[in-house]
Amino acid sequence: MLFMDVHDNLPGVTAADVAEAHKKDLAIQDQYGVDYRTYWVDEAEGKVFCLVEAPSAEAAAAVHKEAHGLLPDRTYPVVEGG
C-alpha cells in the first residue's frame, strides 16, 4: 500500500535535517518491508511529507520511530496518479 505521512509541527526544520532523517529511514526500512520513496519539506511552516510504500501505516511509523523518533501526526492511504 502507498501512504503519505505528514509531520505538522517541526519548527526550525531544514531540508538538510530531513535529508539526514531520510537516510536513517532508508538504512533500516527493509527490516519492516517498507520503501520510503521520497519526501517534501516546507521549512517556513515546519512541515514534512513522506511518500512510503508499506504493508501498513504502522510499519511505516515503526521505521520512523526506530530510525530517528520523528513520528508523523497523520498518515493517509493514497493512490498514485499519472
Description:
This protein is an alpha+beta fold and 82 residues long. The protein has one domain (2-77): Alpha-Beta Plaits (2-Layer Sandwich). The protein has two helices and four strands; from the N terminus they run E-H-E-E-H-E. It has helices at residues 15-28, 57-67, and strands spanning 2-7, 35-42, 47-53, 74-77. The chain has a four-stranded antiparallel beta sheet, covered by helices on one side. A hairpin with a 4-residue loop joins strand 2 (35-42) and strand 3 (47-53). Helix 1 packs across helix 2. The radius of gyration is 12 Å and the shape is globular. It starts with a strand and ends in a 5-residue tail after the last strand. The model has no long low-confidence stretch (mean pLDDT 97). This is DUF4242 domain-containing protein. It holds the Pfam family SCO4226-like. InterPro entries: SCO4226, SCO4226-like.
What would a concise description of this structure say?
With 82 residues, this protein is of the alpha+beta class.
List the helices and strands and how they pair.
Elements: E1 2-7, H1 15-28, E2 35-42, E3 47-53, H2 57-67, E4 74-77
Antiparallel strand pairs: 1-3, 1-4, 2-3
Q: Percent of residues in helical segments?
A: 25-40%
Which structural class matches the secondary elements? alpha+beta
Radius of gyration: 12 Å
The pLDDT mean sits at: 97
Return the CATH architecture: 2-Layer Sandwich
Number of helices: 2
Molecular shape: globular
Strand order of the largest sheet: 2-3-1-4
- What fold name goes in the CATH topology slot? Alpha-Beta Plaits
Termini distance? 17 Å
Top CATH class: Alpha Beta
**Domain module tally:** 1
Give the number of DSSP strands: 4
**Residue windows where pLDDT falls under 50 for at least 5 positions:** none
Order of H and E elements: EHEEHE
CATH superfamily: ORF SCO4226, nickel-binding ferredoxin-like monomer
Largest sheet: 4 strands, antiparallel
How much strand content do the residues show?
25-35%
